[in-house]
Amino acid sequence: MSSLSRAIPGLAIGVLAVALAGYGHSGRLQAAATPQAPNAQLVTSAAVSATSSRALLNDYCVTCHNEKLKTAGLMLDKADVQHVGAGAEVWEKVVQKVRSGAMPPAGRRRPDRQSFEAFVTWLETELDREAAAHPNPGRPADHRLNQVEYSNAIRDLLALDIDAGSLLPADESDHGFDNIADVLSISPTLLERYMLAAQKISRLAIGDPRTGPAIETFNISRSLRQDERMHEELPYDTRGGALIRHYFPLDGEYVVKIRLGRNFTDSVIRAIGTREQIDVLLDGAQVTRFKIGGECVEGSQEPKCLKTSFGYQTPQYALTADEALQVRFAAKAGMHSLGVAFVKKGA
Fold first, then answer.
1. Which residues pair with 340 in a beta bridge?
2. Do 12 and 255 form a contact (C-beta atoms < 8 A)?
3. Residue extents of the structural domains in the chain
4. Helix (H, G, I), strand (E, B), or coil: what is residue 136?
5. What CATH architecture is 11-16+212-343?
6. For 290, which of 67, 91, 190, 278 could close a Cys bridge (C-beta 3.0–4.6 Å)?
7. pLDDT of 19-52, one tens digit each?
8. Contacts for 52-57 with beta carbons within 8 Å, 24 or more apart?
């Protein structure tokens, strides 16, 4: 990794990164209105309407729509007229056919218009009353976990800290909220990402002794000023560098190699004439301290301080000084904080 002059470069660490997919459902809480005591007069009226409606059905409908013939799949001889709401789907069909004039069919005997209208109106009233008393909220949306919820679920279940943002697409939001089921859509592409994340996390959680060495590089932007302490977990007497949260997949030895920032040709180490100290820390504890820079004074005849012979008017030391910035250390499997930073002058 490279940075500005006197800026820490990227780190190369032998590690793996991983993740899993969580999925959830969310119910909807609904307040139920306290039912009022039924009015005796209304109950009597309903009973009379149900009785007269049954008589009308028997006279004009049951001849075809009965348990034996099952015309159009309707068995009105067994339909419960006393409790229209219990068979709302059947009675909705009856209302639709009667209102449209399709039933009774042309050429068949029909009731007088007043009785016909009263029957349909009564059915519609009963259906509306049932719908008002027991509204259908529709199918609840599947509620998947957003990235924060997903990370928390993995942490709680597997004791793993993951970066869900690197594993899953960004969550959609509505009015600033990213945990609303209606906007947390699920697509084949998203499911595929969840499956890939699950594979990575499961391998990380279970571990594999056959895992071979791997290298991961962390870069610091060239434009980042590194004059002050860069992270709250780094010591107060440091400046620049970086604090990296990383998961170490196995108990074993790991290597950190630091590459300092170069000039615009990415060849000469910038500000190498100044003496600097660089700390490498694991979970806040110092692993090692490097000293670098300020070793080649004008006129020095040390081999490393001689000017290069292939066009550079600069010592070899300014090209290769950071090759020795490498340390090997033992670490337990799990999430660790790896810090690399300059020591402030006078600290």
1. 242, 280
2. yes
3. 11-16+212-343, 40-133
4. coil
5. Sandwich (2.60)
6. 278
7. 323 333 333 333 334 444 444 334 334 444 778 8
8. 52/119, 53/81, 53/119, 53/122, 53/123, 54/81, 56/111, 56/115, 56/119, 57/81
